[in-house]
Amino acid sequence: MSDHVYWKEGSLYVLDQRLLPFKTTYLKCSTLKDVAGAITDMAVRGAPLIGIVAAYGVVVGMQEKLRSRPHLKESDAEKICRVLKGTRPTAVNLFWALKKMREAYLKFKADPDLIGHLLQAAVEIHQQDTENNKRLSGYGAELIDDGDTILTHCNAGALATGGYGTALGVIRAAVKAGKSIRVIATETRPYFQGARLTAWELMQEHIPATLITDSMAGYFLSRGRINCVIVGADRIAANGDTANKIGTYSLAVLAHENAVPFYVAAPLSTVDTKIESGSDIPIEERKPDEVTTIAGHRIAPDGAVAANPAFDVTPHRYIHAIITEKGIIRKPYNFT
Amino acid sequence: MSDHVYWKEGSLYVLDQRLLPFKTTYLKCSTLKDVAGAITDMAVRGAPLIGIVAAYGVVVGMQEKLRSRPHLKESDAEKICRVLKGTRPTAVNLFWALKKMREAYLKFKADPDLIGHLLQAAVEIHQQDTENNKRLSGYGAELIDDGDTILTHCNAGALATGGYGTALGVIRAAVKAGKSIRVIATETRPYFQGARLTAWELMQEHIPATLITDSMAGYFLSRGRINCVIVGADRIAANGDTANKIGTYSLAVLAHENAVPFYVAAPLSTVDTKIESGSDIPIEERKPDEVTTIAGHRIAPDGAVAANPAFDVTPHRYIHAIITEKGIIRKPYNFT
After folding, report:
1. Which residues in chain B are contacts of A257 at CB distance < 8 A?
2. Which residue in A129, B41, B104, B114 has a CA-CA distance of 20 to 30 Å to A222?
3. Nearest-angstrom CA–CA distance, B195 and B211
4. Interface predicted TM-score (ipTM) of this complex, two decimals
5. B281 phi, psi to nearest 5 deg
6. What residues pair up with B152 in beta bridges, in sequence order?
7. Using CB atoms, which residue from B249, B257, B297 is nearest to A294?
8. Residue A2 binned pLDDT confidence (cut-offs 50, 70, 90)
9. Euclidean distance between the first and the last CA atom of chain A, given in angstroms as a whole number
């Protein structure tokens, strides 16, 4: 499951997640435009994975520059980072990874093997993410009881990260620890990451999962059918307010109303301590046709107006704990 | 908009709502099986409309019997009602309309024009529903302020009723009273009644509407973008607990959490005073492939397990008022 992003013979390869689970197609990214397009168009998605792909994207972009002239300039690195920063606004891991890559550039800019060092930095970000996920999943598994039914939203699995996953990582670790776990997965409109990706990841590992529409979560919560909710995160503010896939806020309110614990599982690279509260997190508004059209099939009348905010913000008061690679953090949230 | 169900030359014609707004196809129902199938398979849907179609279905069924033998028996009426009662379990208007038709049968069973009297009873149920909707919509419009943005779920419009609609009827009446109204319509998975039917009804009347996925409602409520929520109902218990399309409960909780009024608009035929509270309302579980497949296109891996409860129950404590043809009823709910 960690072969969905890799470097081979000077190019980045990413599994096109828009076609999963029906087609397994890899995109070869040899130019900055290829990488930026893969992020913007959601061939790759998931906050940690976006950061990893952007890190490799810096290497791709620098190599591309070297094909047109013999030396790289600091303005090249800046321009490449600017393009990658512009791909998606909400997931902070993107900016975090680009900052790491910029540090690597400044350290090795005079080194004849600058590209090799940049690639090494990207690989380290990638590997570190997988390791962090395994670590946070181990902590998170302690919150799960044998026999629990866990509700999750969107896909915070191996596919959303360097590997192993965050919310699904916690579920994997609980199962590995011998606990019997059932999952209820929301389909996650408009992009169906739950139906397409989470259901697929769980089926591959034989973890029993039931798919529901997003609107059914309240029903299952109100009937006592869910023991806890675990989701990933795209950006966590200093006070614990968490931006995540649209619909997460609703699940948190519904869990709160039904006294069901609500957990966020995310590496610390998702925390943006520069941002005090969730109201400062920019929310991406995507194209309306993701709402009005499914796989080329229209579901609304021609001319219908649609809105498509891709994320929402869950206030920290609804979050019981944030599960990180440094342990479980509880209210009042303090990440420093 | 009231030509979606009519009687012509001895047959019932219903607009096939599964194909709307893309195709306008009428189903001719000449047998009991035709009518029962149209209800079960959701060619017609919406609690009041189900009742109306079932009423006409009694006429269709009795006529069908008369084609095989010259006289009708009480057991014929009973058998026909039993088949129609078995079509869908949650909407109480179905049982209410069949009770009315049974009363008409008992009154006119010795009359040579029994069929004519039964047809007259069905037409009266149909016309009365439209009149009740107009009346309740007038009351409901008083709850709406000029400039309001109203969130609605599923389709509680003309198409869901004999005509004019309940939740959409209130919106229509407010617009007719000169108020400037905007609507936010949830798409309503799994069947997309919001995207297909509500968006279409509102566009036809030039009422500005924005379509969202069900998961986005919390986002708009939390940002102060919605002034009130109005939905229809499939069955209201004596204490005001309301069964309605799956996802309604979530909207009610989210409205409550954000101090936004939540209204139910429904004719009194939707009230089931025999049922004390919502926990006694049977919830229909439909086939999982309505969740895993959209217009023949799979959205989940082969073998994925899905749940498909079609309704949920909103406890009365979340409901600010129930808008009926006899006026606006407020807590504590008392329908007698």
Report:
1. 253, 257
2. B41
3. 7
4. 0.96
5. -80, 125
6. B185
7. B297
8. low
9. 32
